[in-house]
């Protein structure tokens, strides 16, 4: 090969590597999309929270814990907003949760492991209604799961 041919070959090889790398970077960016984005952003999280709260209100196993909140529209609005922000933040979104820490918020309520599991069932039901993928559901539950030890006071 002549020097000119080698130089041309290297330029073409360089272009191919650049194009291939750009494709891989694009694929990497798609794979690294935040859970928040994969859930559909704040609007989708708000829809899930609305459904979740409705399910909890209808769930005789645990709705007694939310009686005061459910009877006060302003308190319910704050509760939902805090829940949306908590899920948004936990999933990598731009929101900031400003409510109480979980231990303080649930202290003295006597929540059991069964109560917590009922709440999780209601959340899963809401996520299923909106056809949230298994991977996203598992990641969200994994992000929220560690709160259980701060919420549950009895086995």
Mind explaining what this structure looks like?
With 155 residues, the protein is mainly α. It has 2 domains: 1-32; 35-151, Globins (Globin-like, Orthogonal Bundle). It is 72% helix and 0% strand. It contains 9 helices and no strands. α3 packs across α5 and α3 (41-58) crosses α7.
Overview features:
mainly alpha; globular; 155 residues; Globin-like; 72% helix; disordered N terminus; 2 domains
Distance between the terminal alpha carbons, to the nearest Å? 78 Å
Strand content: under 5%
Described by the principal axes of the CA atoms, the overall outline is globular
User: How large, in whole angstroms, is the Cα Rg?
Assistant: 23 Å
How many domains, in number, for the residues? 2
- What is the CATH architecture assignment of the largest domain? Orthogonal Bundle
Mean pLDDT: 86
Report helical residue fraction.
Answer: over 70%
CATH superfamily of the largest domain: Globins
What are the segments in which pLDDT stays under 50 over at least 5 consecutive residues? Answer: 2-26
Counting DSSP H or I runs of 4 or more residues, the number of helices is 9
Topology:
Blueprint: H1 3-31, H2 35-39, H3 41-58, H4 67-70, H5 73-90, H6 102-106, H7 113-129, H8 134-144, H9 148-151
Briefly summarize what is shown:
With 155 residues, the protein is an all-alpha fold.
């Amino acid at each position: 090969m002549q020097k000119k041919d080698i130089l041309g070959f290297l330029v073409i090889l360089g272009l191919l590597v650049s194009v291939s790398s750009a494709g891989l970077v694009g694929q990497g960016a798609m794979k690294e999309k935040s859970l928040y984005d994969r859930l559909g952003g704040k609007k989708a999280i708000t829809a899930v929270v609305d459904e979740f709260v409705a399910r909890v209100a209808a769930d005789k196993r645990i709705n007694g814990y939310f009686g005061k909140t459910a009877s006060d529209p302003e308190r319910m609005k704050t509760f939902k907003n805090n829940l949306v922000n908590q899920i948004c933040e936990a999933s990598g979104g731009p929101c900031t949760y400003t409510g109480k820490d979980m231990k303080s918020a649930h202290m003295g309520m006597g929540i059991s492991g069964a109560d917590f599991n009922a709440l999780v069932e209601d959340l899963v039901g809401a996520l299923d209604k909106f056809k949230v993928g298994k991977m996203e559901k598992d990641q969200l539950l994994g992000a929220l799961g560690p709160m259980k030890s701060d919420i549950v006071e009895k086995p």
